[in-house]
Design a protein that fits this description.
217 residues, mainly alpha, 65% helix, elongated
Length: 217
């Protein structure tokens, strides 16, 4: 008797889930690009300046920020609109602590997050923020540190913008990037294909997302 092939049953088509996936993947791509740029900087032998370290640090915390925002979208509630999930992420701005706490709430019993040591690295990195991407900013504030603290890398700036800490931050950023990518696939991957028969409906939902957010996008 010939075997019959059982066709894969696709989930009910919901344009809002496709929009959620689009946003989650977009954040993940941003994280990926920032990580590549930070990696290129870190491999520039002979160009290991304070300015380079500051820019690498900012790229890494922004990569972490994008991974966390991707996770918020991927772990959005079933009845939560794409707009609502996006605004939750956006309101956290660049604050890694707030983003991570939001992800922890959503990930409970669903996704295993980072260990405590990695979480502490994120909290420490959050102390400075994206404003330290300029050489003059890093230099001026570093020069205000006590000489002893600076020499021991225990000051507010020197404890973060240094080779050893940035190396640890790089590892954490990669872990979160992989986690966010895997989470998109797990929870929204099945909505990767657009239903061509309902393309106009999907396109209209994308337009609604943009129109609803307006200047908050």
């Amino acid at each position: 008797m010939a075997k019959t092939t059982k066709l894969l049953k696709l989930p009910p088509y919901r344009p809002e889930l496709y929009v959620k996936r689009t946003v989650a993947v977009s954040f993940w791509k941003d994280s990926n690009d920032l990580l590549w740029r930070a990696t290129i900087f870190s491999r520039q032998i002979g160009h290991d300046t304070l300015s380079t370290k500051a820019k690498t640090y900012v790229d890494l915390i922004m990569a972490i920020e994008c991974s966390l925002k991707s996770l918020i979208m991927s772990l959005s509630l079933k009845d939560e609109t794409p707009e609502s999930a996006y605004l939750v992420a956006r309101r956290c701005s660049h604050n890694l602590d707030r983003l991570y706490q939001e992800v922890k709430i959503r990930a409970k019993n669903r996704v295993k997050l980072l260990d405590r040591s990695a979480e502490e690295i994120i909290q420490k990195a959050n102390n400075l923020g994206v404003g330290y991407r300029y050489d003059i900013t890093a230099f001026m504030f570093l020069s205000q540190e006590d000489w002893f603290d600076r020499s021991r890398r225990s000051g507010w700036i020197s404890s973060v913008i240094n080779h050893d800490f940035i190396g640890k931050l790089h590892v954490v950023a990669h872990e979160l990037n992989k986690l966010s990518g895997d989470t998109v696939k797990k929870y929204l991957g099945k909505y990767a294909r657009v239903n061509t028969k309902r393309w106009e409906e999907t396109d209209a939902r994308h337009s609604m997302f943009l129109t609803t957010l307006g200047t908050r996008f």
